[in-house]
Design goal:
Helix 4 runs parallel beside helix 6 and helix 7 runs antiparallel to helix 8. The chain is mainly alpha-helical. The protein is 65% helix and 0% strand. It is built from ten helices and no strands. The protein has two domains: 97 residues; 75 residues. The protein starts with 5 loop residues before the first helix and ends with a helix.
Length: 173
């Protein structure tokens, strides 16, 4: 059954998630997830942001839904310009299985976003969280992660400092 999620997610206010919670609750299978995921490829900034929010919520409990979209996620990660989309991508990309080269690329993008003071604070915080998630899957990246944290831990950005403190505690640093 084809579901048109776009009308539920459109709106005018960037500060609103519209009905993304409702959309997330309706997706229960790969087919409906695929239809929702395809909205990430559209041009409407608000639609993409809200679809990404719903995709993120769904993949917390169903990360496997993302795997068929890995190539698209990698392309989006490298080409995304809107901060509202980047902050979702920083978490979503960690929910797919990556080969060695893909992992290197993803690590590079997320490390850059985390350390770039020109990125939004939410993009930076979610990039740090994404790096942490990758370290959980690939413990050999721990030293690289610690180096990223050292590079930014003394910035006077409260949200960054709070996330770093939380992650250091989780890693027993």
């Amino acid at each position: 059954m084809k579901i048109d999620f776009a009308p539920l997610l459109l709106g005018k206010d960037l500060r609103s998630i519209s009905r993304s919670d409702e959309v997330a609750r309706t997706v229960e299978d790969q087919g409906s997830f695929d239809q929702l995921f395809n909205l990430l490829l559209r041009r409407e900034r608000l639609l993409v942001m809200r679809a990404a929010d719903a995709v993120e919520k769904i993949t917390l409990s169903h990360p496997g839904f993302l795997q068929p979209h890995k190539e698209q996620l990698l392309i989006l990660l490298k080409s995304s310009v809107h901060k509202e989309f980047k902050w979702h991508l920083a978490l979503l990309i960690t929910r797919v299985d990556l080969d060695k080269e893909e992992l290197r690329e993803v690590w590079g993008v997320l490390s850059y976003w985390a350390q770039n003071p020109n990125e939004s604070r939410i993009v930076r915080v979610n990039s740090i969280q994404g790096l942490f998630e990758l370290v959980q899957k690939h413990p050999a990246l721990r030293v690289a992660f610690e180096n990223v944290l050292k590079a930014i831990e003394y910035e006077s950005v409260p949200s960054l400092r709070a996330r770093i403190k939380k992650l250091k505690k989780a890693m027993h640093l």
